[in-house]
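Person: Please work through this fold.
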Amino acid sequence: MSNHLTGGKANVALLQESIRNELLTLVDKCDGSKVIVLDEDLNGPIGLVAKSSDLQAHGISKAFILRGGRLPLCDARNVIFITRPLLKLMDLISENIHGEEKSKVRKEFHIIFVPRKSLLCEKRLKNKGVFGNLNFIDELPCDIFPFDSDLMSMELPHAFKEFHLENDPSTLYQAAQAIMTLQDMYGVIPRVCGKGVAAQHVWDLICRLSLEPRPGRQTTAAPHIDQLLLLDRAVDTISPLATQLTYEGLIDEFFGICNTTVHLPAHKFAQSDDEPQSDMIQNKKKVVLNSGDQMFAEIRDKNFNAVGPALSKKAKLISSQLDERHGDKTIQEMKQFVARLSHLMATKKSLATHTTIAEMIKEVTDSTEFLDTLRAQQEMMLCVDTDKVQPYIEDCIAHKESLVKVLRLICLQSATNSGLKQKVLDYYKREIVQAYGFHHILTLTNLEKAGLLKLQDRHRVYPVVRKLLRLTVEDGNEVAPTDMSYVHSVYAPLSARLAQHMARNSGWRNLADVLPLLPGPTLDETQATGAQPHRRGSIDSKQSTGSDVATKVILVFFLGGCTFAEISALRFLSHQPDSNVEFLIATTKLINGNTFIESLMEPLPVPS
């Protein structure tokens, strides 16, 4: 059980343990030596729940990534494919199996589908002539993976596109299944609120699934989660489009965080002799980012302007603690120092790593290009000249800067202006097609279908919602914040503001004038739990101050992805001295503005 998963009121480590046990039970169905072949997109998530030592203890000698052609050379008797139910992956598996037909070593093949089997996939395997080669076909029903003590992700990067662009509700069915799994583990959630079309769809599916028998599942009698908030990403498109200004958010913006891991240029780091070789891959240094790293846990949610002082303060503290060894000490004091030494050295190493990362980020954030982009975004969020063609966007197009950056700015202007005037929209379209190619007409069409680009409504929604929910705070303190707006310096994520009001009022009360302005239906439902809510008598700040108010756990489920800045905003709310709420966050995928736009872009045409 991973320590970084156990810090919350709802113990997320239970989810990790459940998935790992189910996976190892399936693996144990095979007798003899084994290798696993992983769908590449499952490599990270499976690695979060089962360590290589766990797999080796159950007879798995090697793990390969699923590729076409023949399998890598191995003498294992059993080959276990762990894959998502996608037809293109069935073609790769078929190539692997056919490639082993000439092998001198007789192999037995097995497939574990994640999260569920697919009749279409089985039919494809039959058509490819390999279905009969499979000894068993099973499923690992894990719809959601634990990332941290307060964070879970389904790792479905195209959830927003599939529902809002392609009208495919498959990912929402998986989200409903994930919520049912969490309710099996932590008890039925008594109160359910939500906003948006996707939220309504997921709630309808939950109602249907709750009527179906769930064999082998034991629902906890007492609820550990008090409320569920379902948020459709379409309700708040501004938050992912705005540049994140927290430490973790900027790492994701510039380098990309995948499954709590980031790969950075190795030459930027001083490599020590005891550096694990696995941390250095193809001139990249692998850095794991979760609360297991105490240094990272302290700074990840800070505005980047507060990170430098925090690192400097920590460096002075460690230096002074290490200098203690030079003073006169008794045997007992020396023994205590030696006991702390390994922790001090680990902290020192972590400090060096994050100092290097912060320096790499600062190189970008100090650049004129970054500051100009940030200024343009903040003016839009403050409703400054949002109904005109933006000169900065014109310049970006003229210099053929990244199309993703240009589209991100235009979509942000559309979101903050409740759409664009016809002549402004036409101008942007014409310039983009001329500068980047005619095939991007399809990309622009996708953005329009998904609601990120649209003609201006008669009613200007954002300026009204901005004032009613106090979405912008111009005089906020970034180093010692008193409001969540520090995560974007001037803008508080709309999603987090909704969660804040819901937590404060135990529902949607006092938001009657705001909710009708936002897209999609509003939910406020209750579920019968059959038990009194579980109240945890914990030794925490609430009890130490004499408060007898029990901490309430709210699960915020983002349908269509969420950003690290939104997570930081929710953590900020949880950590306020007067807060009696702890937020548990689940999402279909962790995203940033670039990945959000890229998921909706059409790929370049392949030359014939």
About this structure: The chain is about 45% helix and 15% strand.
